[in-house]
Amino acid sequence: MREGKQAVCFFLVAVAYTSSWQAVSSLLAYFKSLYGPQVLLDLNTAWLLPGIPILLLSQWDAYDSYGPALSAKLVTGMAASAALCAVFPLIASTEARLLALVTTLGLFSAVSFGSSYQLVARFPPSCTVALTTGYVGSGPLIIALEAYLRLGPSPSQKQVVQLFVAVALLALCGVAAAILLLRTQGKEQEAMLSGHSGFLLDRPHMQPAARRWSNAFSGGPDLPTTFRCSLDIPASGSPASEDCSQTSSVLERTSLLGGSDDCSQPAAVLSGRDLVAALWPAAMALFLSAGSSVLCFPFFSYLTSSVTLMSNAGLAG
């Protein structure tokens, strides 16, 4: 699959697991009329809280892993979201059911979110851009869909059903895109096992993933000599220096170990302090931008809408 098609697939994946929340939050006026202005705060809590245990579980190797586990997480998360969106208007008949559905959607969305960013690390940088674009681009898509359906502040049951059926179809498109990406990744792993020495050289974006992937084999005999040396894993039954002599030219060109041609020297590892120093500007920027919006958003339902203000002005005149 070409890089452009891969980018489109990642865009669809991100749209798939974010469009459900965009659809729910866009019906704020509708839910406010049914359950009161506090419903938006309740919906935000129901959507965001499931992400916390998912982040904690991602520290476990049994959860945060590659291969079949990653495939199952990504596909199951989006497929479950599609199923829930398809039945959303039928089940969310009370506030308790609404919050339960949003909580479940938040759980599956968090699973898909983490899995998609694990997967995109093995693809070119343009795919990361596409994934992020899809994450923020689902909002305009839902707005366009609601404009097409002519949803107002008090939509009919038919309009709500049409909206969530369309969102379910978007999620299914994401499932199909994820399957294509996973098949592409499977073929690349087969190429790694085949022992082609130019594989990592032609795909520099795969080098970090290859190191992580190879750990599962613990330097076993099935791992090709080229990759065993370049990934700091001595070949079983042969000295590391002998392996290194066979692949020093590859290591020099790919610079997997900072340009060193000695595969017995491990790659440099950043200390915790250096890592914090490198990441804190980006982390602070994300916290200020995303955190401020998350804090303010639940209180929008307490503000007087522009429609009400204009109506009052007309009555006063």
TrEMBL record:
<feature type="transmembrane region" description="Helical">
    <location>
        <begin position="275"/>
        <end position="300"/>
    </location>
</feature>
<feature type="transmembrane region" description="Helical">
    <location>
        <begin position="70"/>
        <end position="92"/>
    </location>
</feature>
<dbReference type="GO" id="GO:0005886">
    <property type="term" value="C:plasma membrane"/>
</dbReference>
<protein>
    <submittedName>
        <fullName>Uncharacterized protein</fullName>
    </submittedName>
</protein>
<dbReference type="GO" id="GO:0005337">
    <property type="term" value="F:nucleoside transmembrane transporter activity"/>
</dbReference>
<keyword id="KW-1133">Transmembrane helix</keyword>
<keyword id="KW-0472">Membrane</keyword>
<keyword id="KW-0812">Transmembrane</keyword>
<keyword id="KW-0813">Transport</keyword>
<feature type="transmembrane region" description="Helical">
    <location>
        <begin position="98"/>
        <end position="117"/>
    </location>
</feature>
<feature type="transmembrane region" description="Helical">
    <location>
        <begin position="161"/>
        <end position="182"/>
    </location>
</feature>
<comment type="similarity">
    <text>Belongs to the SLC29A/ENT transporter (TC 2.A.57) family.</text>
</comment>
<dbReference type="InterPro" id="IPR002259">
    <property type="entry name" value="Eqnu_transpt"/>
</dbReference>
